[in-house]
Amino acid sequence: MEADMSAQSQFPMPSGEIAGPAAWYGSELAKSSDWKRPLTDDELTELDAALRDIQQRGIRIVDIERADFHLPTLGPRLDRMRQELVEGRGFVLLRGIPVDDYTVEESAIIYYGLGTYFGVSIPQNMKGHVLGHVKDLGYDHTDPNVRIYQTTARQTFHTDPCDLVALLCLKPAMQGGLSSIVSSVTVYNEMYRRRPDLAQLLFQPIESDRRGDAREGARGYHCMPVCNWFEGNLSTLYHRSYIESARRFDDVPTLSAEQREALDMFDTLANDPALRLDMEFKPGDIQLLHNYQILHDRTDFQDWPEPERKRHLLRLWLSAPDGRPLPEVFAENYGSIEIGSRQRGFMRNLAPVYTAPLEAE
């Protein structure tokens, strides 16, 4: 498909709707189980053996590389899965890791080692954490310096600043906390079909809050389009809450009526039951998403009163060795757009001491 360079935009957009496996509808996928991938007994045995080998050699989680985590049978299957993530439907749900039989550290080793087959882990905050914890820490979600995954509030549909995001469920919530995903390609297609004038606005730069995670001397927000059309791919980077909270800066203008209408329609379509796919996490599930073509959300939840039972997910942000090329505008947020680089993502060329904490901080 050719790019359309309109007089109103310095940024290209598709000349029409986008076809391909990334343009899926949740109502159709809900009827199938193709996106669910249970791990076999042999594969679980292989993962356990790789865990024991790491423990025996005394390798720290943060230092695990693919060559250290031997998966002779499962590894090639994970490679094919990664290709499906980057070039195909854009998501998969792995099931069956017996996390209740392992300590948190042992589960983290298996998870991190498995993750090396999908890419290099990049930091998720200014502390240099390459292993993240999605857990309620009792924070106020309305605080512009708080990231919403640290609360019980609904997240709303968004992307993370990396190629791939992986979530391992250690413990689900007592009630709620469902995961919802939607194809940003399908959202764009529907928007283009109904309101091409509003779809065009998504390809204009817009400010988004860094939520207190800006390096020294950098402004507290970045400015780039929600949708980016580059080398035949639509790559989306979006967080509505962060777009709204960026208005707190004196040099950031108020959203125009047209911008707000476009963002409202984008959100409405993402939440459409015909477009989105809902899934319930079970202990031992690993959800893998390609951020540039998948938006994800989490419903609000009620947690268990006992601290040891509280909802707890481990998270990896990954830079894929065969990730898609990104337009230069992504450097505004990433710093580096080099494929496979550990600098391709959140930290924007910072070089902290990388750590893999076993508790939420």
Can you walk me through this structure?
The protein is an alpha+beta fold. It has helices at 26-29, 41-57, 74-87, 104-115, 184-194, 196-201, 240-245, 257-270, 331-334, and strands at 3-4, 13-14, 36-38, 91-95, 120-121, 132-134, 164-171, 175-176, 179-183, 205-209, 221-225, 227-230, 233-236, 277-279, 286-290, 294-298, 301-302, 312-319. Strands 3, 4, 5, 6, 7, 15 and 18 form a seven-stranded mixed β-sheet that branches. Strands 14-9-16 form a three-stranded antiparallel β-sheet. A two-stranded antiparallel sheet has the order 1-2.
Question: Can you summarize this structure?
Answer:
The chain has helices spanning 26-29, 41-57, 74-87, 104-115, 184-194, 196-201, 240-245, 257-270, 331-334, and strands at residues 3-4, 13-14, 36-38, 91-95, 120-121, 132-134, 164-171, 175-176, 179-183, 205-209, 221-225, 227-230, 233-236, 277-279, 286-290, 294-298, 301-302, 312-319.
Key traits:
about 350 residues, 3-stranded antiparallel sheet, about 25% helix, about 20% strand, globular
Distance between the termini: 45 Å
**Main sheet record:** 7 strands, mixed
Low confidence ranges: 5-9
- How many DSSP helices? 9
The number of E-state strands comes to: 18
How much is the radius of gyration in Å? 20 Å
Shape: globular
SSE string, helix = H, strand = E? EEHEHHEHEEEEEHHEEEEHHEEEEEH
Portion in helices: 10-25%
Overall pLDDT confidence: 89
Q: Work out the strand percent.
A: 15-25%
Helical/strand content category = alpha+beta
